[in-house]
Amino acid sequence: MMLNIHKIWLLSCLSVIGLIVLYFQSEITRLEDSYRRWEYRLAQSREAQESRSFYPNTVQNDDEDLVVIYNRVPKTGSTSFVGVAYDLCKKNHFKVLHINITANMHVMSLANQYKFAQNVTRWNEVKPALYHGHMAFLNFERLGTPTKPVYINLIRKPLDRLVSYYYFLRHGDNFRPHLVRKKHGDKVTFDECVERGQADCDPNNMWLQVPFFCGHAAQCWKPGNRWALEQAKTNLVNHYLLVGVTEEMLDFITVLEATLPRLFKGATEHYLSSSKSHLRQTSSKKDPSEKTIETIQKSNVWKMENELYEFALEHFKFVKRKLLVREPNSMQQIFFYEKVRPK
């Protein structure tokens, strides 16, 4: 009897300690978020002061014709990001437009490519604007438009994206919880699917981020095509203003706000304080086992998709480091003009 009392007492103590640890962890997280907000505000204030000191007043930063295209890859956190844009559009006076392509096709016909490019660049009544939709990259240069839009995107670890999509088709998400999905009722786990060699978890299904960055060429959509991967990398560097990673959404938004304040002013603070920072989460998702991960990672498609992800991550960290990370006692980077001739 005495032993049982000691066990109960010990369990009670452990429970109390656990609750205390959880409380302090939540407080630390809250304080870190608060510190991040104040740090960001301080940086913005300092940058504004330096800009007023070094930029001539006669130069205007006119972004009223700005067009941004976010050709969002499914299951990369895009709904959360777009939610921020919709919340800011009225306050910041810009339009947000969803690109809805028949039957959720990711590739447009040639005729529609041309019409879309002409429409986006010439539809002045909705500028400045953010267009978003699940579509492959479209090179406006080859379509003869007078101007080019600014491209942005997010990319995610390929296996994480595939697993999320697998369970999304079966259980839906918390964004529209009552909508019945295509595979509703299928209780086969991702591990079981891989073990049985079923089509839904075929590594070829990961071939999506590469073609989304590669574009509308036929080679882009052939799983495991090396040319498509290299073209995706080239487009990412040459045609995208910014490509972030899902795992660092906050930093992606902060870099966007600093670079395109015409649209994204206030986005960082809004994301930190809003309940929409994780707007769409897949329900009943189970992480794959080590055995499943090893099986998937043997595939050529995973290797190429992961190579693109690692490439994008390295590039994003490089961009972020130049903008957000400041060495002690260093100055905020600026540019200005001098030795202007003739006077």
From TrEMBL:
The keyword Transmembrane applies. InterPro entries: Heparan_SO4_2-O-STrfase (IPR007734), P-loop_NTPase (IPR027417), Sulfotransferase (IPR005331). Its main location: Golgi. It is a single-pass type II membrane protein. Keywords: Disulfide bond, Glycoprotein, Golgi apparatus, Membrane, Signal-anchor, Transferase, Transmembrane, Transmembrane helix. It is found in: Golgi apparatus membrane. It holds the Pfam family Sulfotransfer_2. Belongs to the sulfotransferase 3 family. This is Heparin sulfate O-sulfotransferase. It comes from Plutella xylostella (Diamondback moth).
